[in-house]
Amino acid sequence: MKLHWSPRSPFVRKVMIVLYEAGMEDQVTCVRTPVAMDKPNLDLVPDNPLIKLPTLVLDDGTGIYDSRVICAYLDGLAGTGLLPSEPKARLTAERRQALGDGFLDALLLYRQERNKSQERQTPAWLSAFDLKVRAVLAALEKEAPELEKTPFDLGLLSIGCALSYMDYRFADLPWRDDHPALAVWHRRFSERPSVVRSQPDDAAV
Known about the structure:
Layout (H helix, E strand, L loop, with lengths): L1 E4 L4 H13 L6 E4 L22 E3 L5 E2 L2 H12 L8 H28 L8 H27 L4 H16 L10 H11 L2 H5 L8
Parallel strand pairs: 1-2
Antiparallel strand pairs: 1-3, 3-4
Helix pairs in contact: 1-2, 1-5, 3-4, 3-5, 4-6
């Protein structure tokens, strides 16, 4: 299998964590595939017409996307149980994964807006993104005791990757100060070997 990959994409990181958890990293060839909104990589079109990362290409040439679908496929292939089979636990994991992925989507757009020159920024958008970030963090702080009790799954993985992305791209936002329980959970998440191995790499070209 081939994985269109970037060393700094939080959604690619989700897939890499699943590969490490499953011990499948040797079965996938990672191909560095630059993707930018203002410079679409047309080489990716045959595998993913959306021109987005991550994209997994099976041995028969089938392209699989997005990260949620890829993670579920790899988990099922390896039987790692990161997507629980019990209906209630599965629903909880999928709900948390949707929250983590939605949080990441908002953070990516928030960063894009913040990186504009001040005269090109839209204050209403910045306020809307800030509201979403504060609302998600507040919800996760309330849920932190339940996160602690839950075995590692795709929901926890997605939430952890989103919080790690905040640390990586929003170092000026001290989210831990007002969310101590969530901070404790994220510290433990960050110590997991698969998470350590998948750290973003600024040195990668």
